[in-house]
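STRUCTURE REQUEST FORM
Protein name: AraC family transcriptional regulator
Source organism: Aequorivita ciconiae
Requested output: structure tokens
Priority: standard
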Amino acid sequence: MRLVCAILILFLFSGFSQAQENTTKLLAQAENTIYSDPKESIRIAEFVSNKSDNENELIEAAYILIRSYYIQGNYDEALKVGFQFSQDEFQNADDTQLKINVLLTRILKELELNELAQKFMDKAISASQRTINPNTLNWFKGKMIEYNIGPHSEENSENYILKLDSAKREFKKVQSTKHSFQIGLIDLQIASIFLKELKLDTVPYFLESANAESRSLKSGNFLEMMYMLEYGKYFFLERDHFKSIDALNVAQQLAEKFNNISIQHSISEILADNYLALGNVDDFTRQNKITTSLENTINEHEKNAVNTAFNFTSDYQGTVLTKAESNYSLILKVFGGVFLVVLLIWQLFVWRYRIQINQYQSFIKYFDSKQKPLETVPSVSTTAKSSVIPKEMKDILVEKLEEFENTTSFTNQDTSLSRLALQFDTNTKYLSEVVNSHKGKNFNAYINELRINYIIDKLKNDPTYLQYKISYLAEESGFSSHSVFATVFKQITGIPPTRFISILKSKKEMLAENN
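Status: completed
Returned output:
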């Protein structure tokens, strides 16, 4: 009997060991495919999450999921998994929870939820004080340096590069081949700095350094995609537009493989700029439509991610309040909740504003000097089916409209059909009919076109207007908000105001160089 029990126990133990070994192999396979096939990594990690009840395996699978979603640009799903596993307590998992909190910090900073990002950075710092693993500590030091000097840092570029070099040294101390990815990304960041400063002679060195690191990974990896994207930018600034397009097409294929909408949008923007510089209007128009579509998708995805962060914060605060002492008053709870909502909504609006203002400013520096200037297409007059206006009155109103167009009265925000009719000593019906029949558009479209043409004239002829913010240009031309101004501007000219301003700036730079 004892022998039978011993055999049974041995059989069960060997089965358990075999299952654990299989899970370890699966997690290793998922880890090795994160940067080349994140979809496969997600599939494996989700399988382990559903089948395993081992805490260490669960949190390792969670970390793989978060990184894979991040590589795809799927911040919403990354936050959902990350929030869950950053809050739960796992024994002997400080190193992995530290890394999860660091990645959550990165994602939240990119969403500009900086206060919430700081919360997770504090948790990561606390976890780092408990770890004794030198590889983890070196990795963490590198990440601390890298993430604290993000793209919105006020440091000058020289100090920025010095810090990036310092982060690279920390990653090289990590006893693993996985540091190649981190080092390659830093080389690309340095190359990006030199691109923005137009120090093009230095760029190829860092691009090739990043490419060398990418070759240590599986072909078609995320680092290779980013390398081709930066090379596309480099060739664009060198005005070798055909090479730029070739590099960007390779990057686009990889971005589609990763399903990373954000990277696809960046690539599409520069492709459109190349077509514009080559004077290829059809391809520019097609690519510009793709860029706009991708931008709308990005806004929706990031909105979902912000909502996920907001829901997590609300749930977390609710749990804290539930555990608090009963003498906390209801009004304090309501006030705290309202304050949190206002804070997060404010941060969301700031984020959306910065996206709209900065989305076209990074890459457009030079355009073909033969590019034709944008013109407003004249409207074709339509004949009213039946007119009750006396001819003399109609002639007077047409003359007054011409005089009105030669003033700047239309930039007044209170300009309306009724106010202008009163000013012209007529009624709204007469004035509306004259505008429709002689201008080929309704009154609002007529006023909007005058305003846009007015501000375009200012932008072309007064260089100081190129430095003004969109909100100022909107107010100057008579619009109630910069968002309405941007929408109307694009409807009339076919491109956003920020891109129009960039084109004018680059033309002036080219003229200055030629002179």
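Reviewer notes: Confidence is low (pLDDT under 50) at residues 323-328, 355-384. The chain is about 75% helix and 0% strand.
Form closed.
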